[in-house]
Fold this sequence. Notes:
The structure holds three protein chains of three kinds.
Chain A: H1 29-60, H2 82-90, H3 93-124, H4 130-142, H5 145-159, H6 166-170, H7 177-189, H8 192-200, H9 205-216, H10 218-234, H11 237-242, H12 251-262, H13 269-295, H14 300-304
Chain B: H1 5-30, E1 46-51, H2 54-70, E2 76-81, H3 87-97, E3 103-107, H4 112-117, H5 130-138, E4 155-159, E5 163-167, H6 168-174, H7 186-199, E6 204-206, H8 221-228, E7 235-236, E8 239-240, H9 245-259, E9 278-283, H10 286-291, E10 297-300, E11 315-316, E12 320-324, H11 331-341, H12 344-354, E13 357-358, H13 363-366, H14 368-373, H15 378-383, E14 387-388, H16 396-412, H17 418-433
Parallel strand pairs in B: 1-2, 1-3, 6-9, 11-14
Antiparallel strand pairs in B: 3-12, 4-12, 4-13, 5-9, 5-10, 7-8
Chain C: H1 2-7, H2 15-19, H3 32-37, H4 42-69, H5 90-96, H6 99-132, H7 137-149, H8 152-162, H9 168-173, H10 189-214, H11 218-226, H12 231-242, H13 244-259, H14 263-268, H15 281-291, H16 295-320
Helix pairs in contact in C: 4-16, 5-16, 6-10, 6-13, 7-10, 10-13, 11-12, 13-16, 15-16
Amino acid sequence: MTAPRIQAQPGDEQDDDRSVPVVVATVTQGSRWRRWLVMGALFTGAVVFLFPFYYMIVASLQRSPNTSVGGAFPSLGNLTLDNYAQINASLNLWQSLLNSGIFTGGVLLGTLVFGVLGGYALAMLHFRGRGVLFSAMLLVLVVPFQLSMIPLYVLIARDYGLGDTYLGMILPFAINSTAVFIFRQYFLQLPSELFDAARIDGAGELRTLWSIALPLVRPALLTAVLLTFIGPWNEFLWPFLITKQQAKQPLAVSLANYISTVQASTVNPYGAILAGAVVLAVPAVALFLLFQRHFVSTDLGSGVKG
Amino acid sequence: MRPSRPSRRYRHGLAAAVLAGAIVVLTACGSSGGGSTDAASAHGPIKIWYSNNEQEIAWGKQVVDAWNTAHPTEQVTAEQIPTGKSSEDVIGAAITAGTEPCLIYNTSPAAVPGFQKQGGLIDLSSFPDGTSYIETRTGALAKQYASTDGHYYQMPWKSNPVMIFYNKDLLTKAGVDPTKPPLATYDEFLATAKKIVDSGAAPYAIYPAPSSEFYQSWFDFYPLFAAASGGKQLVADGKSQFNTPEGLAVANFWQQIYAQKLAGNETYTGDAFADGKAAMAIVGPWAIAVYKDKVNWGVAPVPTATGMKADQIHTFSDAKNVGMYASCTNQGTAWDFLKFSTSQEQDGQLLTLTGQMPLRTDVPATYADYFAKNPDYKLFAEQAARTVEVPNTANSVEIWQTFRDAWTSAVIFGKSGVQQAMTDAATKIDQLASQK
Amino acid sequence: MTTSATRSPVPRDHPAAQAAGGAGGGQHRTPLVTRLFGRQPIGMLLAAPYAVFIAVIFAYPIGFAVYMSFTDYYFTAPGVTVPHPFVGFDNYKTVLTDPAVLASFGHVGIFLILNVPLTVALSLGLAVALNRAIHFRTFFRAAYYVPYVTASVAVVAVWLFLFSSTGLVNQILGPLAPDPSWLVNSVWAMPMIALFVTWKQLGFFILLYLAALQNVPKELYESASVDGAGAWRSFRSVTVPGVRQATALVLLLAIVTGANLFTEPYLLTGGGGPDGASTTPVLLMYQQGIQQGKPSTASAIGVVLVILVLIVALVNRRLTERSER
């Protein structure tokens, strides 16, 4: 740990572009060496993590498959965007993306609205049935989807008649229990002084929720968004079961269908599959890059300190 | 108040479970059954599913259009389902929910016993001309598709008799005669395979999928067993038939191939034959369209122990059939459409558009013109008369999974003795096949 | 929230104290509403949508699965009535004496032993490192998050290529490469899956820890280093306790994910691996319940799995969580 920076406030380390005057009491050779070690470890880790993804992109740009080691480095003669064009020709890319968006958006909406309320209630409020609800939430987290798959399908497709609809797709995922758990943990972690102050001032529960808890929940919201987004975006099995009309199928399902038929008709089926995978991954990564800035910032410290 | 936390949570958890249980009891008691009326003669619009591979879509569209033009009051709507691993799961789930269509042109014979047990399939023999139509069209082979009660719950539709494809260029490179490669007996096949790998022409001689899914044995063990046994199925009359000298010879042959590293034991992503990683493949006529421009291919029947003559060799059919499903209300139309889509003309369209063999008698003669123009397919058409289907027996999927588990253990990975593994599998399979 | 009421000097007859029920303060005057609905009944309203969701979407299927595990059940088309005889614990007996099922639980055990400590250690370590890195922070965060975001189906193909017998890894290792190669080796198959899942999930856990690290007050670090604590010491005494809640969450999620492993064995080792060396309970449930049409034994496996995981999760909570308010 480097020696303390005087005058540093919480939240400072996010300001990459604002240089903070760093006054260090002592800087030893050891600490600089340690910093290089940290950076080195991070770089190595990043390379290891990114390599398969990098390879995916390279292979998706190849005209003919080159599975040797040399193929890991893009060679100019073998580059083409054909695989991507192929995908666009074989399935209605925009419609599928839209369906994925609606599916994921619906789940996000349900989770962020009702999940926050539920997490807050579980953490902060005492009401009858709180324990039962908490146990039920844990149970939902633990149970694998395959156990409930067929009865759930019967329930939604037959009893509710929601086959081939967006609502039928969204319903089993509508409120992500992991996100609720995260919200609950987060609220539990907040300093109780904030809520006590509100209570002393005579605020009712709803007002406390609205003016104090919700503005503070942003970091947890972002965690929850990043977590909840991935599930429906990459989910294959459930939409596959519930939709037969191609116009309603999200991208993950369309791509899987495409994969099962592409072997026969392209020069580089492997490349086409990876191109599809890249297409599926790009929006998620883009979303993350857009929001990661806000992710770790917190104004919490200033609320607690004097 | 501070009771000991775990016990309070335990009590709440228990309360939640009891509540759930109560809900379930109520639902189970009140589960509704849809009334099934006599729909066998009803006519009206119907829905069908077919597979989503390009050529079958082309065929499907034209047959639906042809029908719809001629029958404006009995319109057919078609949807595609993917042919991948999960298609049977989707159909099973749809049957349970009652959301499946009238006809599915992608029904795997191995799944039929399970669907029948669910009550999901309609007995085609219950139509006045049901049995006669099927048996007239498909001939002697039709019996393999009948269920244990002698009725037909599926319409045999098309087959892809598997044979050995070889890459002529790679064989030449290895010093093997590409016009008549020695592949007729197990010994010859092994020698040729060894020659290919030793010469470096290709890393592997042949590369069937070594993974553990229940259906993979249909493409390594089963074709050779069909040939060696002269057309026997894995199981018949509730007893396994593969724990015999012929069956063991097949298993030992494959065990040799894996032991000498002539085939790969890890899953290859992609097509090993198309990529030149394997000089041979066991595939059906659908492969002709796929490999047309990629590989300079030749074809031979699967090997047998003694080198049987080509016109006596049986093989696996890899058939896909049509089922009529329980949720169908306009069964009259469905049956008529089924007959329409398997008429001589439509079967000819199927042949032309997809290259797959309709399951009807004497295909080479009926479509002589086509084969004159496409001699590549003639060999398959002749082979199509001698195909063996997966047995129509209870617990069909579990039986194949049991077999596959024994196969991967003993033959592919050499973990146990072949004889012992086959005997153990046969015992278990006998038990499964004789259940109701 | 009981502590707050007793800590702050709030006069007993203050409306806020009365609304809060004055726990520890008011003696016999707990209102009926409070007795029936708890101290903050508004909570029921706020939690209602979630509760209804769970009841509707999960209570029926899970309850039904439990019901199936006690009967001889298979799914039928609507309108087809078939007897579903109650068989008591027969399915459980079958399942618990089936060597394949027991082996699959063993594989999950191996997975958890490898994956969970590695996940916690690596994600915390990398989060701490990331927290202190000033340059390239965005790049690093994105790099670690990317595997989490890509669909397993796609990434598996790359791993299959990398770890095949002629793949990059074996070429680098040369004579040290195991034979048969990694994913078809019955000793290495499960550890490889553990490695794959660790790599894939790490990004999310790093983010969880990053968020938690923000809440560790800087003053603690400052006072620790004023007291002369080195980097490792302050890590152990400040960081680790400070992120305890996050650790509990990471442990829980990692255990649950590991126990419910299905996609990776299904894709990476082709449905169960070499000679069944990488089967998992959920994979068996899928095979038996959905492919082979035996949902009763599949449900029995599922119920056993859920019970085991709940036990592990409860133990985890006892060990790591502090008292809640």
